[in-house]
Hints:
alpha+beta; globular; 6-stranded antiparallel beta sheet; two-stranded antiparallel sheet; 11 helices; 13% strand
Amino acid sequence: MSIMSLPGICEKVAFLSQPAAYGRTACHVDIRETHISWIFLTETHAWKLKKPVCYEYLDFSTLEARRKDCEEELRLNRRLARDVYLDIVPLTLDAAGRLALGDRGRPVDWLVHMRRLPSALMLDRAIALQTWTEEDIRRLGNRLAFFYTEQAARIPLAGAQYRIRLSEDLIDAGIELFHEGCGLPVGLINAAVGIARGQLEQDAALFERRAHSGRIVEGHGDLRPEHICLEPEPVIIDCLEFSAMMRQVDPVSELAFLALECERLGAPRAGEVVIETYCAATGDRPVPAVLDFYRRYHACVRAKIAVWHLRDSAPPSFSKWTNRALQYLRYAAALRAA
C-alpha cells in the first residue's frame, strides 16, 4: 500500500485482527461479523468497526456517516450501559501508510470502544446453560421499568399515526416474505401476517390509546437476550442507533419482543417474569390482547429480517435463515389459539 492510497475494509479488518493493534493490552483477538459491523474482542475490551454499507434503512458509505453513527451509538447506549461504552476511537493512517488506533495520523475510520462483557452472563448464554434465575430477571425488569419511565424520552405520537406505523410494518413484512424467493409457504405467511393485521384492525382503539396516553418512548429498538448481561446491575447493549423511528416504541412492545426471543430460546418463563416485573413497577398493565398482538407483530418482523439475510448469505446459510423465518411465522400463526 502506497502512502497516497487509503486502506480498504479488508486492510482495516486485517490490521484490527492482530493483537499488536491494541498495544500490550491484548494477546488474542476474537472476531465477530454482523450484517453491518465487524467486532474485535480482546481479553478485556471490544472494538466495533462499521462496514461501509448502504441499505434502505441506513447509509454508512462515508467516513463522516460512520463517525456520526459511532457518536450516536455511544450516546444512546450509555443510557443502559454507561460503564460499557467507553469512547469512540479513530483508526488513523500515518505518512508512511501505517495504520494505528487513536494515533495522530489521518482518520480513515472510527470505532466504538467498549468494555468486554462476560459471555457466561449474557442472557442468551445463561438460557442455554440454564444458569439464569428469576431474581436475575426481576432485576432486569426493574432496570427496564426505570429506563422507560425515568430515562427514555417521551415521543408525542398521535394514536392513529402509531397504529398506521404498525400496520405498515406488517404490510411490508408480508411483501418481503413473498418476494425474497425463499420458498416459504404462502398459506403460512398469509396466516401469520393476516392474523396480526386483523387483530390490529379489530383492536385499533387499544393501540391508539397506548400512544394517546403517552406510552411511546425512545426505547432500545432491539431488545434481544444476546444484548442483555445479567451483571448485578443488569446491562443492556447494542441499542438500535441508526434509526430514530425504529426506536420509537411502546415499552410493552419491546418487552413482548424480549419474551418472544426468550421463548424461542427455550425460556418462556424469563419473558413472563420480565413483563410481570415491569407491570408491577410501573402500574402499566395492558390487556392480554395487546401483548398477544405485539408477540405476533414482532414474530412477523423478525421473519422478514431473517429472509433479509438471504441477500448476502453464502448458500450453506440459506437453510439457517429460512428455518428461522419458518420458526417465527409458525409462532405467529400458532398464537391464533391463544
